[in-house]
User: Fold this.
Amino acid sequence: MRERLRFLLNRLRERLWIKPLIACVLSVAGVLLAHLADRMVVDHSVPEVTQTSVIELLKIIAAGMLAVATFAVASMVSAYASAGQIATARAFPLIVADDVSQNALSTFVGAFIFSVVGISAAMNGYYGRAGRFTLFVLMVVVLVIVVLTFVRWVDRIARLGRIGGIVDKVERATAAALARRLRRPRLGGVADESSVAGVAIHGEGIGYVQHIDMARLQRLAVEHDVRVGVAVLPGAYVSPARALCRLHGTQAIDEASVRAAFAQAFTIGSQRQFDDDPRFGMVVLAEIAGRALSPGINDPGTAIGVLGSLQRLFAGLAREEAAEAPTCDRVAVPALALDELFDDAFNAIARDGAGIVEVALRLQRHLGELGREHPALRADARRHADLALRRAERALDFPDDTEQVRARHAAYWSGPGATTLHFPDTA
Assistant:
């Protein structure tokens, strides 16, 4: 249930209207509740604030916040469009979910609503002496929040549509997904040891598996006295022809309603999500690097930066951490395939950067260091280093460049003395 709630909350974060709506509700509530001070506070115990001054200040705030909110929306839309052009459209949900930008827009819209409602209430004699003073204090608080939010937001909006900021966001989202998978290697389930085909459960949707409700599968498995073998992981593309899971047990389940109940545990959508799909993060990083290496952009520095992000992610994946005990003992889930993660991360970069010696050298360096430092990654790192070398040999025209790449490959993978070489940080 907790994982399902986290998944739903993350989807709400990607909706721009949620936080502004909450801010508007709080603003209206604050303006109206200021009237309670007239009943709870004796008038002579608070300073006198004239109705005219309150109304004039509220008008200034309303006019300013309307302009700032419009500017904020225009800046955010521009940043979103820029991110899609210079990086990849797959990173768009992470950019939309930026908390600082959403909080800034919510603050500006909320302050505008606060001012408009406050003007209406004050002009119609809704407040007494204590109420006007309370409203004035609320205005000061709102102005302080607006100024602090604006200063922080200006710094963020300057970075929001930049390629470095997008790579950082994708890396953090992928690292979080990998960390969750390390804590729950099989999504809370157990290893699949069944050799029986089982009863196949098919869904009706066509798209990507975004989330698997393990708690629901466990409850249904206990209720019907069966064991569930999950056939697809989050990120898999499915259609009605592909089984989502298989049921193993002493009884066959033929009822359509029961099959539908099991199928509903799989959330299927038109887009992949970062939450439970670490491979998607690798794909997005590789897409960003691939676009940077295209002839139209020609930015090998971004691709080299992405390779650094990938090395950090794989290094984190190789860390030995205690996994949580399985909570769904009747649900078997396949493990995340390490070789597929490597394919998602490095194939496109090795292909598109084969003809750029700087990228080819850095690719050999990152793969070599992953294989040197993490024995669990050595076989896959070596396989991709060999593939990258063969691609570079075909793509590089200048013999000296080819020899540099061969020497870098040999430095990590040929003989016991290979690890004694040192390279400048820029290579």
Observations:
- The beta strands are 199-202, 207-212, 226-230, 237-238, 243-249, 266-269, 331-332.
- The chain is about 65% helix and 5% strand.
